[in-house]
Amino acid sequence: MADEAGGGEVRGALRRVAELGPFFELVTEGVPDGPAWSSFPGGAGRLREAVRDYAGRLGTGEARVAASLLFQGLAARVWSPVVAAAALGVVPDLSGSRWRWAPGEPITVGLAEVQGWRVEDAGEAVEILHPMVVDGVLRPLRDAMLGFVKLADGLVWGNAASALAGSLNVGPPDPGRAEIVRGLLAREPLAGMGSFGPRGYVRNNCCLYYRVPGGGLCGDCGLARGLPEM
Question: How far is CA 87 from CA 2, 90, 92, 172, 177, in A?
């Protein structure tokens, strides 16, 4: 069992990884219960509003397209900071995570209680991260979205895998982060969603971004190598 890390230690690690970019930020100050912040991912109602708003900003009338891309963006906001922090030896606890959103504004993810665990290697980090993120955050997010939009499992978990692998494209090369990412991608339901090749990670399915007006194909899109749409 990994040793517990105190709030100061977790905050320190998260401050360091936040320097990599906005998707690596987990807010740790001023995240109380209240109208501005709600439990993450929460119920379908607020997510439906966010998907509707996102569809308008993307210029698409397809709810599943907006929902798919929103899911991938939220997955990236969760994976990026916790994996980067884990590479520093600290895994933040997401059990009390919150999110803040308003129409037209970016989504922010934060922690109401800042705590976590110290880890000594990638294997130990993966053992904590996989159930915490996949079962504790992404499955509930998927289930809530399925309450109002149809999303195939291959698309959902392909998005989660893509968001995880894509976190390696930000910041300098980090063998520790890469080892953790590869360890997570080897586990279900992320296993088999894509593979690393000469041009980086390539997924075996599509997030539907090509259906956004002027969207084109993402750099890791499976459609680029002739695979069928999910």
Answer: 14, 7, 11, 13, 5
Residue 197 contacts by C-beta under 8 Å, 6 or more apart in sequence?
none
Pairing relation of β-strands 4-5 and 194-197? unpaired
**188 near 177, Cβ under 8 Å?**
no
Tens-level pLDDT at each residue, the chain (230 residues):
679 999 999 999 999 999 999 999 999 988 876 678 889 988 899 999 999 999 999 999 999 999 999 999 999 999 999 999 999 999 999 998 999 988 888 899 999 999 999 999 999 999 999 999 999 999 999 999 999 999 999 999 999 999 999 999 999 999 999 999 999 999 999 999 999 988 789 999 888 878 888 888 887 877 765 444 43
Q: Which residues contact 185 (CB under 8 A, 6 or more apart)?
A: 161, 164, 165, 191, 193, 194
Starting at the edge strand found earlier in the chain, the sheet holding 90-92 runs 4-5, 116-118, 90-92
Q: pTM of the entire structure?
A: 0.93
Beta carbons within 8 Å of 73's beta carbon, 6+ residues apart: 107, 163
Query: CB-hemisphere CA count at 13 Å for 14?
Result: 30
Q: Which residue has the tokens 């900071």?
A: 81
- Both tokens of 58, joined, read 């993307």
The residue count for the chain: 230
